[in-house]
Specification:
The complex is a heterodimer.
Chain A: E1 4-7, E2 10-14, E3 19-25, E4 32-37, E5 43-49, E6 55-58, E7 61-66, E8 71-76, E9 85-92, E10 99-101, E11 105-110
Parallel strand pairs in A: 2-11
Antiparallel strand pairs in A: 1-3, 3-8, 4-5, 4-9, 6-7, 7-8, 9-10, 9-11
Chain B: E1 4-7, E2 10-13, E3 19-25, E4 32-38, E5 44-51, E6 57-58, E7 67-73, E8 76-81, E9 90-97, E10 104-106, E11 110-114
Parallel strand pairs in B: 2-11
Antiparallel strand pairs in B: 1-3, 3-8, 4-5, 4-9, 5-6, 7-8, 9-10, 9-11
Classes of the chains: A mainly beta, B mainly beta.
Chain lengths: ~110, ~120
């Protein structure tokens, strides 16, 4: 059974700092997703990572995937308050269409 | 881009009544849709996978007689919470496989409160 674990679960940081959120998963998969969720809202797609070594960047966010280590990272560079949200990684179950979500990382960026 | 419309966004119902939530793909055909449930400050839990023209596949522990899913067309899936109880109060989110093979588009969610 595929299990997805994120850490940290809570992260409070200052504007301008860098930090990384980690996403580990337990079985082989060919797709990993990162989503953002604002309070009371649904999910916003950030990245989809499809292959070992894949790296994608959008603004201050950069995601990478190491399929051998079953690890993805979401790196935040020079954080700004607008990035405060909950971030989820989700991993596709091999051979199936469904996703398994991590617990989410609640990110708070303080001025 | 792919858009999934979910209605209603909020609903309050009395215990014992049924509530229907609609999920529509607006600009693409979705042969497969997914229904998730999210408790406050928790992650998304997949409830069922809905395939057009066939019975939904429910995840372990999800009562299929309580959470009725219908996917009668390529653009519409519905989730009906039958005989709702306060413990069914939650945030329900649908998603559909998007225009490309790898993307999933999420609806805006429905906050259900059972009183």
């Amino acid at each position: 059974e595929l299990k997805v674990e994120q850490n940290p679960l809570f992260l409070s940081m200052q504007e301008g700092k860098n930090y990384t959120i980690y996403c580990n998963y337990s079985t082989t998969s060919d797709r990993l997703y990162w989503y953002r969720q604002d309070p009371g809202k649904s999910l916003e797609s950030l990245f989809v990572l499809l292959s070992n070594g894949a790296v994608k960047q959008e603004g201050r966010l950069m995601a990478s995937l190491d399929t051998k280590a079953r690890l993805s990272t979401l790196h935040i560079t020079a954080a700004v308050h607008d990035l405060s949200a909950t971030y989820f990684c989700a991993v596709a179950v091999q051979g199936a269409q469904k996703l398994v979500f991590g617990q989410g990382t609640r990110l708070t960026i303080n001025p | 881009g792919a858009v999934v419309s979910q209605h209603p966004s909020r609903v309050i119902c009395k215990s014992g009544t049924s509530v229907k939530i609609e999920c529509r793909s607006l600009d693409f055909q979705a042969t497969t849709m997914f229904w998730y449930r999210q408790f406050p400050k928790k992650s998304l839990m997949l409830m069922a996978t809905s395939n057009e023209g066939s019975k939904a596949t429910y995840e372990q522990g999800v009562e299929k007689d309580k959470f009725l899913i219908n996917h009668a067309s390529l653009t519409l899936s519905t989730l009906t919470v039958t005989s709702a109880h306060p413990e069914d109060s939650s945030f329900y989110i649908c998603s559909a496989e998007g225009l490309d093979r790898y993307g999933y588009t999420f609806g805006s969610g429905t906050r259900l409160t059972v009183v």
